[in-house]
Give the backbone structure.
Amino acid sequence: MRLLHIFAALTLLLGPSLAHAATLNFNGGTVSNCSQSQDGLQYTCASLALGSTDVIVIGSAYAVTVNSSLAMSYNQGLTMSGNATLTVKGNLDIKDINPPNLKVTGGNLTAEGGTFLMGSQEQTITANISATTIKMGSNNVKVTGKISAKGPVEIASGSVINGPISGTIVNILPASTRIQGDITASVSLTIGSGSQVTGNLKSPTIDLKASGLLVTGDVEASNSLSIASGNGIKGNVDAGEVTLDSSNAYITGNAKVDHITLGWQGRVQQTITCKAYTPSNPCSCVTNNSGWAFNEPMGPKCGPSTPSGLHHFQIEHPLTALTCQVPTVTVTACADASCSAVYKGSPSPSVTVSPGGVPTQIDTSGINPNVTVRQTTVGIATLGLVSTPATTGALVCKSGGSTSNCQISFLSSGFQVSGAPRYAEEAGALEISALQTSSGNRDVCVPMFAGQSKDLNLSCAYSNPNAGTLPARIFDSAKNNYVALAASDQSSCSGTSTKVRVTFGANGVAKPNMLYADAGALLLTASYKPDSGSDSGLSMTGSNTVIVAPQQFLLTKLAPTQRAGLAAAPLVAGTPITLSAVNALGAVTKNFGNESGVAVQKVVLGRNLLAPVYTGVSNPEVGGDLDFVKKGGVIVAPPLVWPEVGKINFTAALQDKNGYLGSGLTSPGTSDAVLFYPHHFVTELVVKKVDLPGGTKTEFPFPCSAPFVCAGDRAVYSRQPFDLTIRAQTSGGVDTKNFDARNDVINKTQVTLVPYDAATEKNSYPPTAPSGSTLTDGAKAPAAVTGVPVTSFSNGVATRSIAYSFPAAYAVPKETKALASPTGLLLRVTYAYPAAGSVSSAPADGKEAQLTVLTGRLMVPHDYGSERYPVRLAVQTQYWDGKTWVTSLLDSISAFDNTLVVFANCKKTLVCKDFLLPNNTIVTYTVDKGILPPNRRLILAAPGVGKSGSVDVSVPGIAYLPSTVGTVVFGVFKSGPVIYLREMY
């Protein structure tokens, strides 16, 4: 038998070395349970069942997709190089791989819809990383490559990142992280102390924690920027509210701000520009607590932002004008040769355009559409411009979006064409005024064709964009239908004109309706040159642009529900979510995005909060700028993420407050309503610091230490109350503030709370034998607890006191049910969100509190001694280990005072009340490692000479520590060391 035991031990010791590591080679060959594409470069696996020492090897140019989560352990390995790609549909967890086994020298790692985790070990990889959530562990990591998350990013302290980082909420933990690359966060960015960043930062809210943090690059924070003491930015800042904490925070470049507060010795070394700049009070947005006065060498200096420089002017003008009118042209102050940037410097330039113009100011917008010219004689005029200040670049003229020769033909009669901006494929009037110079006053235009119908020649051309695929259509009063100014409704505007019958009103204005199914500035030209009849000899023309904007931005149909922090899903699974610029009939306006110059349009995502609605509701921003340039009016939408709880519409609209091409039309679009509910729950024990006699501290629930092993490394006694916190969180592990008692949608429901066996995660209310355990509120008269009402939640968090009660406790006489051995629990919550779905704290998404519950008792020992001396009882706290009672070495908290001590059943000459302490005397007894220490034991006073007998001592009243009864006998001497013994006969 002894040899058998030795052999078994050797087998256990050698077992790991006898197992053979398998290598899954994805390099063109066959891999079990994985399919291959025709070219052999793409592998698709339902899952990867890895042995404890298996290694994955992906060759350069090979791609592996795993349609489930993948978590790798310490002795497993991953090797990748070149352009190798590993894509996991779910979570990709490599955090526990032993660093020598992680040999990723190139490629891409992707966790689609899940979390990427690394860094429990000090790991190094070279790869681009993308996921919904990225967590870079608790240890130093080194990554060379791009880090991109649809949700939050967390980087461990001491990490080195060589590459850009992007996400919704980016958190760089303190301390001493090194980052080479830009950091972009769509919601907020926090960088911990001691970090060094070389790159630009961009986020609505940026918090640079104290201290020793340096950013070398420009910083853009539209909402707020906080720079803690000792931190610096070597670059320029463009931000909303900026705070430089005391002391020695600094910015070496310029700062353009809504408001800035300079703490003690805080400095902006260059110029502070208030966005609401006032020349008379340039520092109006500065709160100066730096200790240096304004304009002292070390103090703040304020002024206008540095202009980018005035390069040249551009005139947009009509090709024809009437001598009886004062026509206007649009003058743009250009900051570069292509006029893709507008000069908005100060002082604003003044321009005079000839012929006949007057000095006109161009304001800070850089564009004035109402600069006048004038010529009272028929003929061709060449435009000229003089300005203050002068420019170095030559004047540029454009007409109808095309570069012109700066000439206007002034006529005595003609058409004045105009049309209010309208949405694509929405009918709107095209106004055509027939005018001529009055015979009696050359400065007065009089109408022509009053009450007459005329066949005009109408044509269209593309101004901006300068090309297109669809024509304008004009209502012909003779045909009672729309006529395309092209070969057909589906062809481009042609160089030839189309005859259209229009009817002029009494004022000489015809107002035929116009339709255009695309977007842009469309040049409409009307001409009339009859060969016969009463109008023979007339030659009239006129043109102008009409702006037609997309009617709305249309998102693909979205699924009605999604978990907070994840991207909204399409209603039809597998359908890409697109955002389209469309007309009133829902057709794509393909020309949108082809605009040029300063007219390039930006589209921004937003959201409308539908529910809940209450004061203080959280409504985080979404989105950012969208690029429609040269995309044919359709783009793949970015992840539509909203990290909160509630119902919203996603919105898309033009960013420019002046609307499409300055028309005032913003083309707003709204998605289907999406109800976001918590991604998961977290349950966590509230660990409290407890002061002990002597000034030391401990914690509760009890921290466990070897040799006693506890679930979650914490323990409590059965029936002992402890506090549990429940958090409703997003996919990024951030509390959802709208899961709150004020949310009328959910505040009549509750989150269900059920304990499970920590080892199996299956059996509720363990143990199975003895059965019948309960979860209560821990009160003296305990009530059952089945959950936590939403009315207990504030900003996504609720904390309540609970207790776990075994069906039996120590008692005399013994209860019929057996006592429970130490039992590990996990505390799981589940919640059915109304009209959405069920969510819980169960892994892999959530996190659950664990602890071990003990059957406890207070053991009052038996003792005896002389009636002349007191007896000191070493009372113990004990737990049942399944076989016997064991001293609770983990317990240095349990205590009782003298008012709970009961003296009973006094015999012989003893009187029980004599053992009570005087009234109003309170003595507290606290165990140390499960036993009353020698100097603080429960003392029974000496009865005195002539008094002997026994007394029963107990400490009832502690629900989770039922007391034994110890019998103390007075009048019996304790035996001691024998010095001399002699028997007498």
User: Anything to note?
Assistant: The chain has one helix and 89 strands.
